[in-house]
Amino acid sequence: MTADRRQQAERGFSLIETIITLVVLSIAAAGVLSVFTTGMRGSADPLLLNQAVQLAQEKTDTIIGDRGNPARGFAWIVPGNYPAESPVTGFPGFDRSVTLFCVNAADVNTSLGAPGAGGCASGYTHVTVSIAHAVLGTISIETVLANY
Questions:
Q1: Which residues span the domain enclosing 58?
Q2: What is the three-state SS of 1-57?
Q3: To pair with 102 at 20 to 30 A between CA atoms, which of 35, 39, 55, 66?
Q4: pLDDT of residue 56
C-alpha cells in the first residue's frame, strides 16, 4: 500500500461507524436517564417535607410551652389535651398525632404507659409528634420533658 492510500484509509470515521456509535451512546444515555427519573419520582417534594417538619415542630413547641405556662404546667401534658388532627387545620393532606409516655429518669426510652390526668408521677414525659402524609410517609419529632 502506498503512502497516499494509507493516508486516505486512516483519515477518520466512516458514516457507518458514526451511526453505530450514536446508537450505542443513545441507548446508554437512556439507561442512565431512566435511573435519574425514577429517583426524582421517588423523592419527596422539598416543600411538603419542610411543611411536615414545621407542623411537627410547631406542636412540639406548643407542648414545651405548656409545661412552662404557670396556668397549665407539667400536669397539663396528658394525651387528652393534644388530640389527633386529621387533617391539620389549613394543611389538607397532613395528619398530626401526639403520643405521650411517662418514663423513668434512668431509662427514658422505656414506656411506663400513658400519663394520667395528673401528669407523670416519674416527672418525665417522652413526647412524640408525628405528621403523616400520603407522599412523604410519617415524619416524627421526639423530646423528653422534665417536671422541674
A1: 46-146
A2: CCHHHHHHHCCCCCHHHHHHHHHHHHHHHHHHHHHHHHHHHHCCCHHHHHHHHHHHH
A3: 55
A4: 93
71 lies in the same domain as 57: yes
Instruction: In whole angstroms, give the CA distance from residue 103 to residue 87.
Output: 29
Same-domain check for residues 78 and 108: yes
Q: What are phi and psi of 23, to 5 degrees?
A: -65, -45
Asked whether residue 38 falls in the same domain as residue 51, the answer is no
Residues 76 and 105 in one domain: yes
State how many domains the chain has. 2
Same-domain check for residues 54 and 81: yes
Q: How far is CA 47 from the centre of its chain?
A: 11
Q: How far is CA 135 from CA 17, 45, 51, in A?
A: 47, 8, 12
Cell output for 129: 409528634
Q: Residue 35 has what pLDDT?
A: 79
How far, CA to CA in Å, does 69 sit from each of 30, 77, 102?
A: 60, 11, 20
For the segment 11-60, what is each residue's pLDDT rounded down to a tens digit? 777 889 899 999 999 999 988 888 777 666 656 678 888 899 999 999 99
Instruction: State pLDDT tens for residues 65-118.
Output: 998 888 988 888 888 889 999 999 999 889 999 998 887 766 655 555 666 656
